[in-house]
Amino acid sequence: MIELDKVCFAYPAQGPTVQDLSFRIGDGEFVAILGANGAGKTTTVRLIDGLIKPTSGRVIIDGTDTASSRVSDRARRVGFLFQNPDRQICKNTVREEILFGLETVRGEEGAEALGHRADEVLQEFGFTGEEEPFSLSRGQRQRVALASILAVEPSVLILDEPTTGLDYRECCHIMDQIRTMNREKNVTVIMVCHDMEIVLDYASRALVMSGGRLLDDGPVPEIFRNSALMERASILPPQMIGLSLRLGRGFEDADTPESMADAILRRKKEG
Amino acid sequence: MNHVLQYIPGNSVIHRMNPVTKLLLTIIICVCAFMTDNLFFLLGLLAVDLMIGFVAGVAGRTLKIFRGLLMIAAFLFILQALLTRRGTPVFWIITDEGLMGAGRVVLRLIVVCMPLALVLAVTRISDLTNALVQHLHVPYQYAFTLATAIRFIPQFLEEMNGIMEAQTARGVAFDQARGLKKFSMILPLCAPLLISSVRRTDQTAVAAEVRGFRLRTRASAYRRYTFTALDAATFLFCALLLAGAILIR
Amino acid sequence: MIEIQDLSFTYQDEKKPALEGISLSLREGDFLGIIGPAGAGKTTLGRAISGIVPHHYKGDFYGSVTVGGMDTVDSSLIDISRLVGMVFQDVDSQIICPTVEDELLYGLENFGIGRDEIPERIGFALGKVGIPELRERSIGSLSGGQRQKVAIASVIALKPRVLVLDEPTGELDPQSSRQVFTLLRELNEEFGITIVVIEQKIMLLCEFARRLLVLNEGKAVHEGETRQVLSHAEDLENIGVNIPRVATLSRALSRKTGKEIPVCINLDEAEKTARGLMA
After folding, report:
1. Which residue of A61, A131, C117, C174 is 20 to 30 Å from A233, comparing CA positions?
2. Chain A: closest CA distance from residue C3 (Å)
3. By C-alpha distance, which of B103, C6, B170, C107 is closest to A88?
4. Are the C-beta atoms of residues C156 and C125 closer than 8 Å to each other?
């Protein structure tokens, strides 16, 4: 459980980046944080993990206040996947990279158990383990980063624009893996993402931000159907939602091309 | 990102000086600091450093640099004072000569480093390189390399912070370490930094090349850097400083 | 404007060719989008058009690339860059100078633009990308989107006839991405600048690019008018290229009705198709 209570954050000598932020995220939720550049999304996820501490208000994660606990102590339970995988990867092979993450936070389990866990993850991600991370594509490097974070089996996963610079296939690959973790292991996922189609496909709840404030918070398709809200947050809703809004009544449930086609044909039959 | 070497725009007398003059003033202060052993003269040079910063309207930055240098200086002072064996003991193993020597070393350090850092705060790097090329006939390639190196410092720092943040989030205890320990922790994690730097330098080289890097000559620069009465006055000031350093050893 | 004939290129020290048998013909004023999965050779093709391949990145080069009548192998990189402006993928490594004005001056000075013309060129470029107020700012104080605009301004100040951009919206949010493409459209329509843009965001390409080139593993899969290329939706999906949801919708409708329904590439078309079917 994650709780933000009237959180404000300002960099020294600058105006506030986020203001009066209050929300709760329960275990196993898949939440997307939406908004234009500069809306305060990245600041919010960094606040959640305690990488930055609130100027006022409280951030409670796993029952502890981030102001009085350390990020590195939290790494066992909270994984953070950054936009740029190259800042994380520091070993020469994928296996070493995954082991490094494991040894850092689960060192007490012993080399054998960790080696076993690393092999498990390698298999899950389809790596041999001998690949050199820096000769892989950006998408593959992002998967290496994700693998080494998921290896430690965190209960919360924070993603800051995880699909930047990836092609569509790599993007789906990563998101599918994240969804599996969410569904099978009840991992809480909090994601900052600019691609609304991905948000629609994967997230179940959305927090909409603008100018450092929380504008709205609700289930995903509904949030996108709120045209006034989308306008205020400068967000272009996913295409099928945009189309269903234009077509009016009878298309409220048509979120995917498949269901949209069915809705159109149903209407056609009805005349 | 506001870092300690970033240019601060302004229109003070110091900003308006010819970049070559600013560089000369910096060098003269350094030379003087090494020539003299007189503590009072060194203090005088420090006053000159601070004054330059205040006149340039970058007092905040000046004090920031000063504070940073003081911390390093304090460490050096203690070391130097403890290690000097000559002279009469003042208390414990500290001698009067040790104190004087340590004072000179740290003052010199501060006096030399301040203007080097300040000159970048009040001069655009491109003005500096252009002026060097125009007046001192420094080959453009060298000037460019220097400018690019300086330009990459903030990016390098940003990247370093990013890496530390990413590793902390993974459980590497950067948030529990300080100073040297932190430094020794980051070294093994520098592979990403090196790789991204190498990649960047190569890309910058291409980007420069397709925008006519090879065509550049001494006459290319759009801005002209003339010498005015202000520069003449500064030259005179430099000469006085130098004379002072020779006289007041 | 750009003629590519049977181009194959293998980077030095690599076995697999980055490009294989690419042919492409663009007229002056065309607006081409290049899309394809990672490792498809998109960046290499961009480099080949701007002469960086084979002048900076060496390797085995077969076939020919002609830009504005110049064969890129025989001409010097400098001569090609007078004609072709390039905006690179990583903005931070492309920006050379510490302030916005200096960055624009850099190319202008090097290419020997007359002193009297320089202020006008700077004004033009900054105005065009919509950042005249950033002129004196240091690069370090700008956001990612602003830096991207500076990079583009510094290239258009040189008034290139061809503009090659490698994923110019990679790090931008949807709104800033649209701004960049709107700017490209203006440059294209007002000044007839030929645009070649490598981009992963298919929705932007559908809206702005007139032609599309789909690359996969170094080979051209489809090339032609945007709509026509998107009518091969299945091929695109098979190689892992995203297609807009409206295109998926028109395919689903074709399948479900058993009738050939023309591919939709934007919301307006989808709405029209839907209303047409329901009427």
Report:
1. A61
2. 27
3. B170
4. yes
Please judge whether C140 and B210 are an interchain contact, meaning their C-beta atoms are less than 8 angstroms apart. no
CATH label of the domain that carries residue A48: 3.40.50.300
Task: Work out the average pLDDT over B206-235.
Answer: 86
**What is d(CA A119, CA A117) in angstroms, rounded to the nearest whole number?**
5
Q: Phi, psi (5° rounding) for residue A219?
A: -65, 150
CA B120 to CA B150: how far, in whole Å? Answer: 9
CB C220 within 8 A of CB C214: yes
- For residues B27-36, give the mean pLDDT: 90
Angstrom distances, CA of residue A203 to CA of A27, A28, A196, A259:
14, 11, 10, 18
Chain C segment 95-154 residues within 8 A of B by beta carbon are: 95-99, 102, 105-112, 115, 118, 136, 138, 140-141, 154
Q: What is the 3-class SS of A69-122, one letter each residue?
A: CCHHHHCCCEEEECCCHHHCCCCCCHHHHHHHHHHHHHHHHCHHHHHHHHHHHH
Angle CA(C124)–CA(C127)–CA(C129) in degrees, nearest 5?
Answer: 110
Q: Which of residues 228-257 of A touch B (CB under 8 A)?
A: none
Name the closest residue on chain B to residue A47, using Cα atoms.
B169
Q: Which pLDDT does position A176 carry in this prediction?
A: 93
Mean pLDDT, rounded, of chain A: 91
**CA distance linking residue A264 with residue C9, whole number of Å:** 48
| Domain-located, residue A190 | yes
Q: Residue A229 domain-assigned?
A: no
pLDDT, residue C85, reads 94
Neighbours of B48 (CB within 10 A): 19
Tell me which chain C residues have a C-beta less than 8 angstroms from the C-beta of B147.
97
Q: Does A267 touch chain C (CB under 8 A)?
A: yes
Instruction: Tell me the whole-structure pTM to 2 decimals.
Output: 0.85
DSSP string covering C22-47 = EEEEE-TT-EEEEE--TTSSHHHHHH
Judge whether residue A49 has pLDDT over 60. yes
Interface test with C, best of B211, B213, B217, B220 (most C CBs within 10 A): B211
Q: How many domains does chain A have?
A: 1
Rounded to an integer, the average pLDDT of B29-55 is 90
Tens-digit pLDDT profile for residues A132-177? 888 888 888 888 999 999 999 999 999 998 888 788 888 888 899 9
pLDDT at B2: 54
Range of the domain at A77: 2-221
Average the pLDDT over C206-225 and give the result.
94
Measured distance CA(A62)–CA(A65) in Å, rounded: 8
Name the residue ranges covered by the structural domains of chain C.
2-243
pLDDT, chain B, mean: 84
The residues, ordered by sequence, that sit 6+ positions from A5 with a Cβ below 8 Å of its Cβ are A22, A57, A58, A59, A60
Contact C240 A169 (CB under 8 A): yes
A186-211 burial string, b = 16+ CB within 10 Å, else e?
A: ebbbbbbbbbbbbbbbbbebbbbbbb
Q: Flag whether A244 is in a domain.
A: no
Q: In whole angstroms, what is the distance from residue C36 CA to residue C216 CA?
A: 6
Are the Cβ atoms of A105 and B191 closer than 8 angstroms? no
Q: Which CATH number fits domain C2-243: 3.40.50.620, 3.40.50.300, 3.40.50.10090, 3.40.605.10?
A: 3.40.50.300
Amino acid of residue A37: N
Q: What percent of chain B has a predicted confidence (pLDDT) above 90?
A: 12
Asked whether the beta carbons of A39 and A211 are under 8 A apart, the reply is yes
Please tell me the predicted confidence (pLDDT) of residue B1: 40
Q: Is residue A174 part of a domain?
A: yes
Query: Which span out of A218-222, B58-62, B140-144 was modeled with the highest average pLDDT?
Result: A218-222
Q: Is B158 in the A-facing interface, judged by CB distances under 8 Å?
A: no
What ipTM, to 2 d.p.? 0.84
